[in-house]
Amino acid sequence: xxxxxxxxxxxxASVRFIENGxxxxxxxxxxxxxxxxxxxxxxxxxxxxxAIPSSRQTEAWARExxxxxxxxxxxQQLDLTIDGADEADREWNLTKGGGGALVRxxxxxxxxxxxxxxxxxxxxxDQLGSFPLPVEILPFGWQATVExxxxxxxxxxxxxxxxxxxxxxxxxxxxxCDAGLINHPDALHNRLKQLVGVVxxxxxxxxxxxxxxxxPDSAAAFPF
Length: 224
Ligand code: DER
What we know:
alpha/beta, Ribose5P_isomerase_type_A, Ribose-5-phosphate isomerase A
């Protein structure tokens, strides 16, 4: 379908920013899937890269498609991280975490020289907040943490899969928060992050260096 074609276009276009010898961070999600598949073509043609995955799912794709893996014992900085997003506003602030990997995604984005975000055009919004904001919280006392978040004016809903509470790769829970339209993403992130029990928020504010927007039969990279 057109959305998947657009994700494929964005994912494949992002590989042009990966150069021989780079250490790259691999994000998570279905747009990243297409990037990994395209990257594996370059590797088969001799490109030398090493990657740190941001989730067990991404690690499985990397192994499936032959992308060499490395880890933080070998490197603590990355040339480039490529990842998707659930929303991107006009300043390229992002809502992430739809796939539940936001903590590791933010870690690999934060240690990268360049953070490249790949989205289909449906992710572009004037202001963040249409997509419920994912926030990773500790399981211990999570009900009290939810109350503390409510006091800030957001409405958290514990994420469940098949009626069971979802558990992240880090062994934590995720709440999806209705925060209304988020006019100042950085301010909301800071307020939430200070609460005891909150591990990390899905607000990626001021981190994006390049945005690649996919359309069904093309992709555009900004800044040019
Ligand atoms: O969970 C995440 O942050 C993912 O990157 C997500 O936001 C993008 O998922 P998609 O590429 O499957 O739309």
